[in-house]
Here is the input.
Amino acid sequence: MTTVPGFPQGFLWGAATSAYQIEGAVDTDGRGRSVWDSFCERPGAIIDGSDGRIAADHYHRYREDVALMRDLGLSGYRFSVAWPRIQPDGTGAPRAAGLDFYSRLVDELLDAGIAPVVTLYHWDLPQALEDAGGWPNRDTAYRFAEYAQIMAAALGDRIRLWTTINEPWCAAFLGYAAGIHAPGRTEPAASLAAAHHLNLAHGLGTQAIRGVLGNATPVGEVLNLHQLYPLSDDPADLDAFGRVNAVGNDIFLNPVLEGRYTDLTVSATAELTDWSFVRDGDLTTIHQPLSMLGINYYATHKVGAGVADGSPNPWPGAEDARHVTDPGPRTAMDWNIDPQGLTDLLLGTARRAPAIPLMVTENGAAFDDVAGADGVFHDAARVAYYDSHIAAVRAAIEAGAPVTGYFAWSLLDNFEWAEGCAKRFGIVHVDYDTLVRTPKDSARWYQALIAGQSSDG
Ligand code: GCO
Here is the structure.
């Protein structure tokens, strides 16, 4: 095993994907419908009108994809399980075909020497559970625990690391407040109940997995913590910054790390809800020992005082804040490129949760890739993005942050949610007509880094 200078022995070098974004095969082997199948049918919901019906067809090509990962030398692969393949209606007996797909995938990874890192929920809620109220409905958290128990029994000790919920901020607030992700609801009060029930699902799910596999089973959660900076030290800017931080970060971090919601989280949202959806014992349930905390990082922004314009946004209780990004180079998502933000975020999180190993569970960039005359995608901008951000992780480690893995987002070009197939995050190009995979320069660069051959390393 090689070690990349500046990174600890055993560090996981991986890539990440999610089920709805790559699998396709939405009607295959009895898979049920998810909220994303429905959302994609809503006119105007997806910028280019695309959907995940075929995506990268990974469901049929997973062997080829694992072979690609082996070739790149990855030591870890983070993927998600499509809940509707396991329980088409979100409840009841599991479907053998769904379990079998993930079981085969895991075996294939293990044969290739790649550690499987599973995410149980990456947003593809069974539509039947949404029809029963979705995440604002408390019962959804209990359904999630049942599903987690099924997966723990099926995949067992073959999994290196379980993660429960991916980016609950997006699921709760893009899905139920801003309405730009499935299920497309714009109900800020309900979105706060959704956030609490996603937290509860993490706690109940963790208990369910450890109930099957034992208390030592590695279980964590994945958050897209927002690396925010106040626009100025003007009190109005600091007030807006504080509220955005409260509903962007603290609402997820404090319950899981400390078993409480902060006063500011509650007071900032007091006009929307009285928080009566929090029941006795919930915070203890959410506050399970974390084996790791996953951080997804892309960009930074500054926050100051502004004026609510009445349009739905994903910051319930802080709808009036102004969000500004620094000028300078941007990705195709129009996100700023700020590697220092990743160092700051890792160090800040490490200070808040000193005993918990951290992983960068997603980091990467979309650019408008153009093939060279040789048919290869010379994605120099993406290489530069990875180079600077991996250096930023190294800097955080050197300053004491306990980072134990890094996962490039993403292995493959894929269905980028509301942005459809137009935004490409892969280190491997996917031709959506032929489904042919072609590693981009960034994949070769990452391969060399992992092999310890990078000039940079
Ligand atoms: C996530 C992410 C991914 C996105 C990526 C680029 O939640 O894990 O949203 O699914 O594709 O972050 O936007």
